[in-house]
Structure formats: structure tokens, C-alpha cells
Amino acid sequence: MSPQDIAHAGGTGQSGDPVGDAQRGRRQFESRVDMRRFLALLGKESRQILRDPSTALIAFVLPLLLLFLFGYGVNLDTARTRIGIDQRDHSQEASSLAHDFAASRWFDVVDAQPIATLGRELVAGQIRGIIVIPDGFGRDVAGGGGTIQVIADGALPNMAGFIGGYADGVRANWMTQRALEQGQATTERNPAIRVEHRYWFNPELTSRFFLVPGSIAVVMTMIGTLLTALVVAREWERGTLEGLMATPIGMGEFIATKVVPYFLLGLCSMALCALLEIFLFDVPFRGSPPALLAISAVFLLPALGQGLLISAATRNQFVASQIALLTAFLPTMLLSGFLFEIDSMPAPIRLLTYLVPARYLIPQLQTVFLAGDDWQLFIPDMAMLLGFGTFFFAIAVKVTRRRVA
Amino acid sequence: MISVRLKSIIVKELWAILRDPRTRITLLVPPIVQLAIFGFATTLEVKNITLGVLNHDSGAWSHEVIQRVAGSPNVARIIALQSDEQVRQAMDRQRVIAVLRFESNFSGNVTSGRGGVIGMISDGRRSNAAQIVSGYLDQIAVQVGASVAPVQMRAAAPPGSIVLNWFNRNLDYLWFTMPALIAIISAISAMSVVAQSVARERELGTYDQLMVSPLRVGEILVGKMVPPVLIGTFVTTVYVILIPLLFAVPLTGSVALLYAALVFYLLALTGVGMLVSVLSATQQQAFLGMFLVAIPLILLSGYASPVDNMPGWLQAIAHLDPATYFLRVTTGVFLKAMPARDVLDNCWPLALICVVTLSASALLFRSRME
């Protein structure tokens, strides 16, 4: 802030204040708000934000990067898994089954070697599973049996689970197919009980659809908490904040000028994310834009409050950045239910997630995108977020006052 | 021999970081908190779920299925629903992840041999969890179905697959997360420190002083690389001690190999962080720049989802990510007793990343002097 700005802001504050001294003392906060001064400060803060290229990076490049990574990189839908086959039986049956594995849409057979060699490749991570077709397999099949061995890389537990299931599926299909070709009745008869699956909101179960709205939460946390914490901490570090405090602006006005620009920036970035998701990534948007706007605006309150609080409590950019990372970014990524299921976490950590504001945002985002406007779901979550917001702002004001005094 | 100049810059850099007690705490405490919280939280297993049941069937078989479901270790609660309207509400509000529907003729169909059908509605908003829960229900259906007609299912030598999971027999997810977390947390610690190093000097104006000192560019960079490498080593050491002790994850391989790879990893990270730092004019830019690098570094490393699942062109990009290599080493050394050759295979790409990024940093550092 330039000296002229301060002088100007201070001057209008003095001359434009119609309230008497006694009242001023009592209601210092409200009485000193001056619209012109406020707008001037707001203009200064906004220009400062737009001037720094790193802000643009976070507001406009980060959403792109996240969408891109969540859209393509974080893929929980299993792709073709690289496996090796140790075919010890050279009967026609064994070769036919090996061929089915090679043709399967689940597997990519990259090597056929004895198990000792394949085992080393499994350790190196070149393959993720080994299929062993044992000696005598053809004879066993003719006798009504036929067992194969599947070895999966347990170092990737989820993938290993899929490999076991899919490999058995390939084998079972091959058996059925073979029985049909030979004109036999299939051994698998109509099952006594089966489950018919339907998936609401996302019938194709595209994982992109649930990952991508989460990027809005991450981006808004970054702008609300991390960016605000960094910028305000720098002002503390350099002492420019004390300078500002020495002017006649009130605490409310001061906080508003710091917060409003980031609030607007957060909403712009959210809008960019949402538009890209809908038009580029084909994520359905079944709710209404006003609902999305309301949800996001309410979430930005605790995010900004937390940012202010961190900056006032640390007054050091490095410490502020680390604390923001630990208390805002990582919980939003990992404890909000967006990547990992909250219900599956151990009880103490489940309790901890109730303190993560993003936990109340994620279900709202998933619903507004994939299900539609459901105010009965939104309103309790919004109330929680407003509660967090009020709490953070109240503490931030208190800490700032104490620090200045 | 370390020259006097080099020694003094290293001491100065260490002081710059460790002088402030709050910085010391933020460097040492969060990694340990993260180990506990994120180690447990980041599971792709699905446990403790709440299911809804809408049962129009009064027979024994629906009751049997519900009992089995309630007894499953993955299911915490079952909510009895009375109408389609309640089903819709429970699903919309995410009170349940899935609803099982039994029609009134379910048990009749099971006993008569026509086959009973359970209608399962799952919440596609949580597609991954929904899919896993569906799998559980299929298994339960098969198990209960087997008890309907035990005689029919018996064959002489039943065909099948014997599935063995090497390195992690019970597919315990923690066994993967914990070693993988070493790669992630040490990266965050080391890169946060190195990214600030040059940018802070520039912001405070001490950059020019550094330039007019008799130090060479190489010495300045080496001095700035020592603290992040030390901090990364410290964090890793804490993890290597705590993970087998607290979480019973087996450490099957050689710790010496792990440390050898760690040095390459930390050097590669400081190279990347240094590049960010040299390109930044302020600490804010350095931090945000570091962040923009750290996000893909973490997400492409294989920690959030396997690299194998990514499209081919993105796998190629993942090969530029130092964390991809080190994550293979940590999980390999912990679970697979990875031999030296495989560890080395993952070290030379790290060395390459380090050389390229540091050379670029040195060039930029010099060019920014003017």
C-alpha cells in the first residue's frame, strides 16, 4: 500500500465520520465504515492480487491441472493389468485358456516364462500378476476339474483383489464356452440367489464423475485458506499490516478488504472448474447454478476465516504455508470423503473428519452435480459451514486485535 | 575436503531454517501427525457401511440374506425401510450407500428353483465404494445360494482358481499406504524447504549480498541443498522406525538400499524445488509454485491410484516424476525384499532428474544475477 493510499483513506475516514465521540468509542466497529475508503482499499487489494502471477497460477492454472489429473490420472477404474503366464501344460486346453487370457480385456499378457523368472518381474513391478496353468491341466479339464493358480502382487492391494477376481472370471468363461462348444449342458446352472445391480446418479460408474467435483473443493480451499494465509502473513512479516492498523479503518473493514477479493477470486475459480467439468469432462450437472453458487459461497467463509486465523497466529509465511497445508489442504484431499470413504476410517479419525469443513462440502457438490438440488441435504451442511465460518472469523478477529495491541 | 566457504554457507543455511523454533516444530511435528492420520485414513477398503433394506418378502430366505449381510465385518448398520419414498430419501441424503430390495415372491422363487433376485440400488456418486459393496453382496448371494442347494453344487474335483497374494497375503491396505507415505511426506518436507531458500533471499534482498560474496554459484546451491536433504533423511528415519513398530508392516528388504535410494530421491527433489525457487521472485510465488509441482508429483506417483491404470501418455509423464521411482523402492524394500539391482534401476532416473534440474537452476541462478 502506498503512502498516498493511506493518507487518502485516513483523510476521508476523519472528515466523513458524522458520529459523535461517545458513540464512536462504544461502537467503534460499525461507525467508522466509510464506503469510499472501503472501495479504495478493496481496489488496492484486488489490484495487488491481480498483479502477482502466482495468484493467477493458483486461481486459473491449478483448476486446470487438478481437473486434468483427476480426470485422467487418478483412475480407480481398473485398466488392463500386465501379467505373465507360466504355461506348464502343453495340451490344447491349456493353450486355449492362455489364449483367452491374452485376448481378455482385463489383462495384458506381457511375458510367458517359468515362474522363477516371472517372480523376479513381479518383485521389480514389471508385471502385477502371474497365471500358472499347471501340468496336467488338459487331463483335469477332461475329467471335470481344472484348477489354475493366480499370483497377485499384494504390494498393490486393490489391484491384487481385482486380479484374483478377474482371472477366475476368465477361467470360468473359458470353461462355459468350452462346454457350450462340446454341446454339454453348462455346469453353472441358474443360481439360487443373485443380485441385480442398479446404480443411481451415475449408472456407468465412471470414477471421473465423483472425483472431478472434488477438485472444486481443493481449489476453493487453496484460494480461501492457503493463498489468504500466505498473503496476509507476508503483510505481518513486513509490518505493512501494522501500518494499515494505524489508520482509522475499523477491524471489520480491515478484514472485509482482505477477504472480499479472495472470496470473489474463489468463486471465479469455482465457476471455471464447474464449466470445464461440465463441458470438457461431460460430468452431468443436474442441479441449478444458483445452488452451486450458494454452496460454494458458504464454503468459502470457513476457508477464508481459517486463512486469516493462520496468518494472524503465525505472522510468518513459511510457518503459515506449512500449517495451511497440514490443516486445510491435506484434510480436504484425504479426510473429506472425496478420495477415501469416511465410513471406512477408524473411529477416532472418523470423529476428526467432523472438524474438516470440506467434509460438509463434498456431499453437497456430489449431489448438486449428479443428483440435483436437494435443499434438505444442503441446509444442514451449510449451517455447519456457517458455524465454522463464524467461529474462525471470531477467533481471527480476537487474535488480530491482541497482536496489534 | 570441504572448503571453509562451503562449510560456512552450509552452517548459514541450516541456521536460516532451524533458528526459528516454530519452523523447527512445523518441520518435525506434522510428518508424524500425518503418519498416524493419513496412514489410517487413506484406505480404499470399504468398511463400516450402512445399508438400507426394503423387504416385501415374509419368507425365510430374505431373512437369511439380511442376517448374513448384517453379520458381514464390512457392514456396520442396517436400516429397515418401509416404502419407495423412504428408499429415495435415504439414498438422496446419503444415509445409506446402497439399498437391498426383496420382492414379495423372493423366498418362493428361491425354494421353487426359479431363483430369487435381490434388487440392489447403489449410490453412483461414490462409484468406487458402490462397486466394492456390490461385490460383497454378490459373494453373500453366492454363499446363501450354496446353502439352498448344497447337493447340486458338488462336483468330483471342482474347477477353480487358487489365488495367492504374494508380499501381502491378506491384502492389508496399510501395508501399501505406509511405505508409500514415506515417499510423499519426505517430498513435501524437502521441497517446502528448498523452494523457499532462494526466493526468500530475493524477497528479503539478501540475494544481492550473496552474489557479491566470494561464494561460487555451485557452492551456494550445494549449501542450499544440505538442509532439505537432512530434513528428508530425518523424516524418513522416523518413519522407517515407526512403521514396523506401530503398524506391524514387515520390513523385508535392506535398509541400506532404502537409504541409498533416498539420497538420490532427495537430490532429485531438491533439484526440482531449486528450479521452482530460482524462478520465483517472492516466497509466495515459490510456495505456490512448489505446490503446483507437488500435486502432480503426488497424484502421478501411484499413491492415489496405480500408475498402471493411467492412459499411456500419462504414464510417460509419470516417468518424469521422482516419487514414482522412490515409491517403487519403498514398497519394494518394505514388502518385496527388493534386490539391489531393482533398486538401482530406480536410482539412475532419479540421478538424471537431479542433474538436469540442478544444471538448469545453476544456469538460471547465474543469469538472474544481472
Please explain how this structure is put together.
The complex is a heterodimer of chains A (about 400) and B (about 375). With about 400 residues, chain A is an alpha/beta fold. Chain A folds into two domains: about 5-75 and about 205-405, no CATH class; about 80-180, 3-Layer(aba) Sandwich (abc type-2 transporter like fold). Helix content of chain A is about 70%, strand content about 10%. In chain A, β1 (about 80-85), α6 (about 90-105) and β2 form a beta-alpha-beta unit. In chain A, α1 packs antiparallel against α4 (about 35-50) and α13 runs antiparallel to α16. Chain A is elongated, with a radius of gyration of 30 Å. The model of chain A is unreliable at about 1-30 (pLDDT under 50). Chain B is an alpha/beta fold. Chain B folds into two domains: about 20-40 and about 170-365, no CATH class; about 50-155, abc type-2 transporter like fold. In chain B, α11 (about 255-280) crosses α12. The model of chain B is unreliable at about 150-155 (pLDDT under 50). The interface between A and B is large, with 113 and 118 residues. β5 of chain A pairs parallel with β4 of chain B.
Features:
heterodimer; A: 405 residues; alpha/beta; abc type-2 transporter like fold; 2 domains; four-stranded mixed sheet; 17 helices; 8% strand; disordered N terminus; B: 370 residues; 15 helices; 5 strands; 9% strand; elongated
Please outline what is shown here:
The complex is a heterodimer of chains A (405) and B (370). Chain A is of the alpha/beta class. Helix content of chain A is 68%, strand content 8%.
